[in-house]
Design a protein that fits this description.
There is one protein chain. This protein is α+β, with helices and mostly antiparallel strands and 91 residues long. The chain has a single domain, classed as 2-Layer Sandwich (Hypothetical Cytosolic Protein, Chain: A), CATH 3.30.1230.10. It is 34% helix and 21% strand. The protein has a three-stranded antiparallel beta sheet. A two-stranded antiparallel sheet has the order 1-2. The chain binds zinc ion.
């Protein structure tokens, strides 16, 4: 069995298997988006939970991973993107 890569959540700072986390990256417009594979630039990992999304604006990990912060408006957009993704997975 292959070793599962362990990544650190940008929000809560806890380590988890990569498969349990979402990869977040700034898109070319500079907005945060959920991506399957990192393209150019920096990306970071996040638990797909409301608690970790809500914690992002105060988290230091996001600045370390993405070299940027996140405002409330963008946090809401990200929360919606994660919710959409969860719905797709259960269908
Ligand atoms: Zn987390």
């Amino acid at each position: 069995m292959a070793a599962t890569p362990i990544r650190t959540c940008m929000s809560c700072g806890q380590r988890a298997p990569q498969s349990a986390l979402l990869r977040i990256q700034s898109d070319p417009q500079g907005r945060l988006a959920v991506v399957d594979k990192a393209r150019r630039g920096r990306s970071g990992y996040l638990h797909p939970t409301r608690a970790c999304i809500d914690g992002l604006p105060k988290a230091r990990g996001i600045r370390r991973s993405l070299r940027r912060g996140i405002d409330r408006c963008e946090r809401e957009r990200l929360a919606e993107a994660v919710a959409d993704l969860s719905l797709e997975k259960t269908e």
